[in-house]
Amino acid sequence: MTIEVMLVDDHAVVREGYRRLLELHEDLQVTAEAADAESALLQWRTMQPRPAVLVIDLALPGMGGLELIGRLRQRDPEVRCLAFSMYRDAVWVTQALRAGALGYVTKSSDPAQLVHAVREVHAGRRVLGSDIAGEVARHLIEHPTATPHGLTPREFEVLRLLLAGCSPRQIAETLCLSVKTVHNIHYQIKSKLDTPSDFELARLAWRQGWVD
């Protein structure tokens, strides 16, 4: 049985490298690629049959990977997504899983882990890269019921775009929200993180390693 895969990453060289890696295995075939979330969503909606597994970078330009995973899950609760990111912080892992990803592997992990993770996600099983599993376990022990700082995946995505220098209007256009909604989310983020100013918000995010 061949597992059809879609790669979503804004770097063509990265996509080519992982396409070659996956297709070294007879049971894996990359049938689609996208450089951003919007084109990935459009392709996925029009493809028949659809890829069995989507491997999604979280740091995409414009709409990020968290938002993409959430929208895919809204359209098809059975869609199987694997987050594949440079971020090693438990916050990113937790947010990706909350958004609907079945697994999370870092780009610094052994290539064999990506292959293993694709197969596990295809089988409907949760999987974490070995280099982040310990940190995630520690986080869950310390915060068994709470999400990181109480932020939802949508709030975390708005925070990412704010820190990237996007204006509320740009964020609204990217996420198909009203400007008023973006302002409300911005306020909720600062309230939850107890950061009265955008400067304090940015400093906290950098200190926590949530941004590049």
What does this entry look like structurally?
- Keywords: DNA-binding, Phosphoprotein.
- This is Two-component response regulator.
- By secondary structure, the chain is of the alpha/beta class.
- It folds into two domains: 3-142, Rossmann fold (3-Layer(aba) Sandwich); 148-208, Arc Repressor Mutant, subunit A, CATH 1.10.10.
- 53% of the residues lie in helices and 13% in strands.
- The chain has helices at 12-22, 37-46, 65-75, 90-99, 111-122, 130-142, 153-163, 168-175, 179-193, 198-208, and strands at residues 3-8, 28-34, 53-56, 81-85, 103-106, 127-128.
- Strands 2-1-3-4-5-6 form a six-stranded parallel sheet, with helices on both faces.
- Helix 3 links the parallel strand 3 and strand 4.
- Helix 2 runs parallel beside helix 3.
- The chain is globular and about 55 Å long.
- The mean pLDDT is 89.
